[in-house]
Design a protein that fits this description.
6 helices, globular, four-stranded antiparallel β-sheet, Cathepsin D, subunit A, domain 1, mainly beta, disordered N terminus, 2 domains, 439 residues
């Protein structure tokens, strides 16, 4: 290591083998339109995407982040603090779509691991509806709303999530009762209505959940937009219109905007990484990490540290990337050595916020260049991370490596590392692209 040469400056402000701290954004919403929203093909539906609890979220759409659950303890927040001063363990983003006739605009959290789009309806028994920003959806006010009958083929598609079979209400309506890995539960009427994605893009008979009961840790969201693989997700229900294709770009900061697109864009490069199906997690998306480099050099780790196929879960809400400990340890060791010996940072005490970020430094007053970090996925798809995809800056006296370890043989590629990339999913074609600098 001692014989490594100094990095050299490139014309774009980066160093070869290094990443330089960009200017920090102000706490106001930028009016800049993301590059990826401009001049898109007319067959695409392009929607604005903003981070919850941010300057860019309209006051009526602001939502409190979910409170950390037991499952979240190892998932480290890498985002601004919420209104209580606690860091977010998830980073959620919202889009707005219309339900019913006439349409009722609802703010929905984007979720690539969920199978059912749902909104909260005003049919909660004894007025037990969970508090949310904005009014609840009233199905009786929509001329196009209808319940899905319990004894119907459409109701039977809920069976994978309800092993005992479809649940019937006393009036013969199809009921869903779903619980996630954190123990959060939603229950309601499996329904259909018109979904308005954009003023001229309507999806008739869109199947969704009209939720009247929630248990667990929910924020103030109106609902959730399911982008998973299941046949009840919006991806499957709009397959004839959008070819099972979508993309998103998470903004670089809470004071800027990103976007969600629905539809296939054939202008992208042919170089993609395969989307892998894992039978034990049928609704989720997996890819394969082939290599991780620090300062331009691949780190060495035991190849058995990863699963042979589908070793990385790509997610739309988990804050930071998690690596198997057998991979994280040599990765973090190399990064720390370079920071201390090549880039001349001083060690800092890790934050006392309950997070697992433990590789920390005191920022320089000027010239905060750091080692570059890149991931190579199958088919030699290389993703070069920017400064804020590598470290979390707490303040002028503390910054930490924005990765953590897990006792598992599967990684999670979190959204902090995905920011500013347009991540393009061709679900039917089993392909995924990373397009840099799109928002």
């Amino acid at each position: 290591m001692a014989g490594r040469s100094k990095a050299t400056v490139r014309g774009d402000g980066r160093w070869l083998g290094a990443v330089v701290l960009p200017s920090l954004s102000a706490n106001v919403c930028s009016s800049t339109i993301p590059l990826g929203m401009k001049n898109r093909h007319s067959s695409l539906s392009v929607l604005e995407l903003v981070q919850t609890h941010s300057p860019c979220a309209d006051e009526k759409q602001l939502m409190n982040p979910r409170k950390p659950t037991t499952h979240d303890v190892a998932r480290t927040p890498v985002s601004p603090a919420d209104s209580t001063g606690k860091f977010q363990f998830y980073i959620d983003h919202i889009v707005t779509m219309g339900f019913g006739t006439p349409e009722k605009m609802m703010s929905l959290i984007l979720d690539t691991s969920s199978d059912l789009t749902w909104i909260q309806c005003n049919t909660c028994p004894n007025k037990t509806c969970r508090k949310q920003e904005g009014s609840l959806f009233n199905p009786s006010m929509s001329s196009s709303y209808s319940h899905i009958p319990c004894k119907s083929t459409q109701c039977s598609i809920m069976e994978p999530d309800t092993p005992s079979g479809p649940i019937c209400s006393k009036t013969g309506n199809c009921i869903y009762d779903l619980t996630d890995s954190d123990g959060n539960e939603i229950k309601g009427d499996f329904s259909r209505d018109t979904l308005t994605i954009a003023p001229n893009i309507l999806v008739h008979d869109f199947k969704f959940g009209c939720t009247y009961s929630t248990k667990g840790t929910f924020g103030l969201e109106a609902g959730l937009l399911a982008l998973g693989r299941s046949n009840t997700s919006i991806v499957s229900q709009t397959a004839n219109k959008f070819n099972q294709c979508f993309s998103y770009c998470f903004p670089s900061s809470s004071s800027s905007k990103g976007f969600l697109t629905l539809g296939k864009d054939n202008s992208f490069t042919k170089i993609f990484t395969p989307l892998i199906i894992r039978s034990e997690y049928p609704y989720m998306y997996f890819i394969n990490i082939i290599a991780i480099s620090v300062d331009g050099r691949d780190i060495k780790y035991n190849p058995n540290a990863f699963l042979s196929s589908g070793n990385t879960y790509i997610d739309s809400s988990i804050a930071i990337t998690e690596l198997p400990s057998a991979v994280y340890n040599p990765f973090s060791t190399e990064f720390r050595w370079l920071m201390l010996n090549k880039y001349r940072y001083k060690k800092a005490k890790p934050p006392s916020d309950g997070s697992s970020l433990d590789i920390c430094f005191v920022p320089h007053k000027t010239n905060n260049s750091i080692p570059s970090v890149s991931f190579t996925f199958k088919n030699n798809v290389k993703v070069n991370l920017d400064f804020f995809g590598i470290v979390r800056v707490y303040n002028a006296s503390l910054m930490c490596l924005a990765f953590t370890s897990v006792d598992d043989n599967m990684a999670t590629f979190g959204i902090t590392q995905q920011k500013t990339f347009e991540v393009v999913y061709d679900v039917g074609g089993h392909k995924l692209w990373f397009i840099p600098n799109r928002c």
